Amino acid sequence: MEKVEGQVVHGMVMKNGYESNLYVGNSLINLYSVFGAMEDAHKVFDKMSERDVFTWTILVTGYAKNGEMGEACEIFGMMPMRNAVSWAVIISDPAAAISNPETALPFF
After folding, report:
1. DSSP 3-state assignment of 83?
2. Distance between CA atoms of 15 and 99, rounded to whole angstroms?
3. Of 15, 50, 68, 75, which has the highest C-beta tally within 10 A?
4. Between 21 and 92, whose confidence is greater?
5. Could you tell me if residue 55 is left (phi over 0), alpha (psi between -120 and 50 degrees) or otherwise beta?
6. Is the model more confident about 106 or about 53?
7. Contact between 60 and 89 (Cβ < 8 Å)
8. Are 40 and 59 in contact (CB under 8 A)?
9. What is the Cα 57 distance to its own chain's centre?
Protein backbone atom coordinates (compact mmCIF):
# COMPACT_ATOMS: atom_id res chain seq x y z
CA MET A 1 0.00 0.00 0.00
CA GLU A 2 1.20 3.49 -0.84
CA LYS A 3 0.62 6.61 1.25
CA VAL A 4 -1.91 7.88 -1.30
CA GLU A 5 -3.91 4.67 -0.95
CA GLY A 6 -3.78 5.12 2.83
CA GLN A 7 -5.19 8.61 2.42
CA VAL A 8 -8.00 7.18 0.30
CA VAL A 9 -8.77 4.68 3.07
CA HIS A 10 -8.74 7.53 5.60
CA GLY A 11 -11.19 9.47 3.43
CA MET A 12 -13.50 6.47 3.24
CA VAL A 13 -13.32 6.07 7.02
CA MET A 14 -14.38 9.69 7.46
CA LYS A 15 -17.10 9.46 4.80
CA ASN A 16 -18.62 6.39 6.45
CA GLY A 17 -18.52 7.82 9.96
CA TYR A 18 -15.92 5.51 11.49
CA GLU A 19 -13.48 8.24 12.47
CA SER A 20 -14.58 8.13 16.12
CA ASN A 21 -13.86 4.40 16.44
CA LEU A 22 -10.85 3.82 18.72
CA TYR A 23 -9.52 0.84 16.77
CA VAL A 24 -9.89 2.59 13.42
CA GLY A 25 -8.07 5.65 14.78
CA ASN A 26 -5.26 3.48 16.11
CA SER A 27 -4.96 1.80 12.71
CA LEU A 28 -4.82 5.14 10.92
CA ILE A 29 -2.06 6.38 13.24
CA ASN A 30 -0.12 3.21 12.51
CA LEU A 31 -0.76 3.52 8.77
CA TYR A 32 0.61 7.06 8.61
CA SER A 33 3.54 6.10 10.85
CA VAL A 34 4.55 3.31 8.48
CA PHE A 35 4.77 5.86 5.65
CA GLY A 36 6.74 8.31 7.81
CA ALA A 37 3.85 10.79 7.72
CA MET A 38 4.02 11.64 11.40
CA GLU A 39 2.28 14.98 10.98
CA ASP A 40 -0.74 13.14 9.56
CA ALA A 41 -0.50 10.49 12.29
CA HIS A 42 -0.46 13.20 14.95
CA LYS A 43 -3.46 14.94 13.37
CA VAL A 44 -5.45 11.70 13.64
CA PHE A 45 -4.30 11.36 17.26
CA ASP A 46 -5.34 14.94 18.06
CA LYS A 47 -8.82 14.43 16.60
CA MET A 48 -9.51 11.23 18.54
CA SER A 49 -12.08 11.67 21.30
CA GLU A 50 -10.98 8.45 22.98
CA ARG A 51 -7.41 7.21 23.40
CA ASP A 52 -6.02 4.18 25.18
CA VAL A 53 -2.52 3.06 26.09
CA PHE A 54 -2.15 1.52 22.64
CA THR A 55 -3.04 4.80 20.92
CA TRP A 56 -0.25 6.57 22.78
CA THR A 57 2.19 3.70 22.26
CA ILE A 58 1.53 3.57 18.50
CA LEU A 59 2.22 7.30 18.19
CA VAL A 60 5.40 7.18 20.31
CA THR A 61 6.65 4.15 18.39
CA GLY A 62 5.94 5.87 15.08
CA TYR A 63 8.02 8.88 16.06
CA ALA A 64 10.83 6.64 17.33
CA LYS A 65 10.89 4.47 14.22
CA ASN A 66 11.00 7.58 12.05
CA GLY A 67 14.02 8.92 13.94
CA GLU A 68 12.15 11.67 15.77
CA MET A 69 13.35 10.77 19.26
CA GLY A 70 12.70 14.21 20.75
CA GLU A 71 9.04 14.08 19.78
CA ALA A 72 8.80 10.44 20.89
CA CYS A 73 10.19 11.37 24.33
CA GLU A 74 7.81 14.32 24.62
CA ILE A 75 4.72 12.24 23.79
CA PHE A 76 5.87 9.40 26.06
CA GLY A 77 6.21 11.91 28.90
CA MET A 78 2.61 13.04 28.36
CA MET A 79 1.16 9.51 28.39
CA PRO A 80 -1.49 9.40 31.13
CA MET A 81 -1.13 5.65 31.51
CA ARG A 82 1.57 3.09 30.82
CA ASN A 83 1.61 -0.67 31.07
CA ALA A 84 4.13 -3.45 30.54
CA VAL A 85 3.44 -3.45 26.81
CA SER A 86 4.05 0.27 26.36
CA TRP A 87 7.25 0.10 28.40
CA ALA A 88 8.47 -2.89 26.39
CA VAL A 89 7.82 -1.06 23.13
CA ILE A 90 9.45 2.11 24.38
CA ILE A 91 12.51 0.24 25.61
CA SER A 92 13.02 -1.92 22.52
CA ASP A 93 11.85 0.13 19.53
CA PRO A 94 13.98 3.27 19.76
CA ALA A 95 17.26 1.38 19.94
CA ALA A 96 16.22 -1.09 17.24
CA ALA A 97 14.86 1.60 14.96
CA ILE A 98 17.99 3.70 14.90
CA SER A 99 20.63 1.07 15.74
CA ASN A 100 22.10 3.32 18.42
CA PRO A 101 21.14 2.44 22.01
CA GLU A 102 22.49 5.73 23.37
CA THR A 103 19.69 7.63 21.66
CA ALA A 104 17.15 5.59 23.61
CA LEU A 105 18.49 6.95 26.92
CA PRO A 106 16.06 9.90 27.10
CA PHE A 107 13.28 7.40 27.79
CA PHE A 108 14.83 6.50 31.14
Report:
1. coil
2. 40
3. 75
4. 21
5. alpha
6. 53
7. yes
8. no
9. 6
Measured between alpha carbons, how far is 27 from 36 in angstroms, rounded to an integer?
14
Is 62:38 a contact under the CB 8 Å cutoff?
A: yes
Residue 6 pLDDT > 70:
yes
- pLDDT tens by residue, 50-59: 999 899 999 9
* CA–CA gap between residue 49 and residue 18 (Å, rounded): 12
The pLDDT of residue 26 is above 90: yes
Rounded to 5 degrees, what angle do the CA atoms 36, 47, 11 make? 65
Cα–Cα dist 4/54, whole Å: 25
pLDDT in tens, 32-90: 999 999 999 999 999 999 999 899 999 998 998 898 888 988 898 899 887 776 676 66
In whole angstroms, what is the distance from residue 104 CA to residue 94 CA? 5
CB atoms under 10 Å from CB of 107, counted, come to 18
> Considering only CA atoms, which of 35, 29, 34 is closest in space to residue 13?
29
